[in-house]
Amino acid sequence: MRIQRISGIIACAALLSLAACGSDSTGPNNLDANSALQSLRLGLGGISDIEGPSGATVVGSLGVIAPLLDQINVTIDGKSQTMFGLGLRDSYPAGACEEQIFSDPDFPPPPGQCTPTSLGVVLLLWQSHSAAAPPDRMILMAGDEGTTSFDFASITSVPGVAFYLEGSNFYISTSGTLTSHVASSGTTCTVPLPVYAKSATCTLATFNEQGTITLEADPSSPSSVGHTLTIAPQTVDGVWLSITELQPLSLQSSASLRGLLRR
To answer: What pLDDT band is residue 138 in, cutting at 50, 70 and 90?
Structure first.
């Protein structure tokens, strides 16, 4: 996977790798919003220098997000699970290229190449038993506005990516679709900007979500059994970060991204 295509999912992958040491308890979501976000923050805390919208928002702005936090029902292999939910969206200036964001002097793009920005919508779902521990069960989906395919065999579009963590078991999407429609409420908010944004406007937003995604176990996972996730039509609150001016990542940040991808 090229670095240029993962602005929305870098935080997801890192979050999962950091949260895997958490408890494998799957108890009810009886935490208050602040405690649930503190739990999520523990999983995100190690990526403060490279986060996309999910990292920047959750790590830096618990007070902004807490009043928005919903719980929704997700079906996992036919069994309903109640999970905290949060939507995050990045949008970019017209004509923006991913080469403008992830400019790596070690791997310069061909002259004139412009890859449209993608995977700017992130949906986070999780269960937590304690504010002092990372989430016990977590689903992270990165896609686009509209319907995103998670079929990596497709050659017609950039596939979305979904991760599922349950205890020490890690799963990644292989097929399915997710339909996302994001609407701004018009209410402004203040969050730390990702490192590739020079300026941006934050608004609270609603995320209408629906889809079914199939996931297979990562080769390093103790479990070899895959899962099917289904989200019936539901609405999740969240944050929309409209980036008005981009800036390339620094050489140090680009090196950090390459290091993360090699893990």
So the answer is: confident
